Amino acid sequence: MTPRRRIIDLGITVEPAPGPEHQRLEITYEKHEDTAEYMMMRFECGRRDLPGGLGWANEYVTLGTHVGTHMDAPWHYHPISEGKKAKTIDELPVEWFYGDGVVIDMRHKKPGELISTDDLKKSLGETGYELKSFDIVLVMTGADKLWGTKEYWSEFPGLGKESTLWLASQGVKVMGTDSAGWDRPFKAMVEEFKRTGDKSVIWGAHFAGIEREYCQIEKLTNLDLLPPYGFTVSCPPIKILNASAGWVRPIAILED
């Protein structure tokens, strides 16, 4: 008997939503009525020659590469990674984007809190899973439930330099989160930097990519529909020339 397969969509919809200016996007819609004249001109026909006298639908989208569910390339973090030029999104090996998925549940962490290496190890220990090279690690914070609100951009925990480097040291090349960012919210990092003067807290999880080459997916969703492991993830990003990120529609594949 062929096993049943379930596909779970892990990406949010690209749509206008409350957020900071750099997350702004615009979608212009051309309806079927709007394009009939153009089709009549291109096909040298009359309106009666088109089904219902209608043309095609079309859209024009203006957005940044870090809007919506997207993958950051090492080039986003710094021009150098592991002592050589950091890879842009179009240079990353496609083999990285299909592999065994692992969910690490961090929903108990409060907004602004640091997700430490010990937190990651404890969660993995509780599920009995041992990471291996090229696993795709998805950190679940539950922040995706706030999508469409202004709180989405600031109410989530995040990783730091040490915890990110630990994942990379296990051979993980692709990691992701269901929150707006892999690091903690900017406010949390600013407050700690002012209090301690420790510059390593400034975008520490991203800057970890200077030492170890990895990429990360931000703005995932539906991680709560997945088991801790035992599924496959497919998440190839759009190849944009020399870009620091590319949009992704990641999916999880479960065999029942």
Short description:
With 256 residues, the chain is an alpha/beta fold. The chain has six helices and 15 strands.
Verbal overview:
The longest helix is centred in the middle third of the chain and has 11 residues, at 117-127. The mean pLDDT is 97. This protein has a 9-stranded mixed sheet with strand order 1-15-13-7-9-11-12-4-14. Strands 2-3 form a two-stranded antiparallel ribbon. Strands 5-6 form a two-stranded antiparallel ribbon. It folds into 2 domains: 26-62, no CATH class; 70-255, Putative cyclase (Glucose Oxidase, domain 1). The chain is an alpha/beta fold. Helices cover 18% and strands 24% of the residues. A hairpin with a 2-residue loop joins strand 5 and strand 6.
- Give the total of beta strands: 15
Please work out how many helical segments DSSP would assign.
Answer: 6
Let me know the CATH homologous superfamily of the largest domain.
Putative cyclase
Query: What is the straight-line distance between the termini?
Result: 12 Å
Helical residues, percent:
10-25%
Number of domains: 2
Q: What class, by secondary structure content?
A: alpha/beta
Report the portion of residues in β strands: 15-25%
Principal-axis shape: globular
Low-confidence stretches: none
* CATH topology (fold) name of the largest domain: Glucose Oxidase, domain 1
Major sheet characteristics: 9 strands, mixed
State the strand order across the main sheet.
1-15-13-7-9-11-12-4-14
CATH top level class name of the largest domain: Alpha Beta
pLDDT averaged residue by residue: 97
Rg, Å, rounded: 21 Å
Order of helices and strands: EEHEEHEEEEHEEHEHHEEEE
Give me the CATH architecture of the largest domain, please.
3-Layer(bba) Sandwich
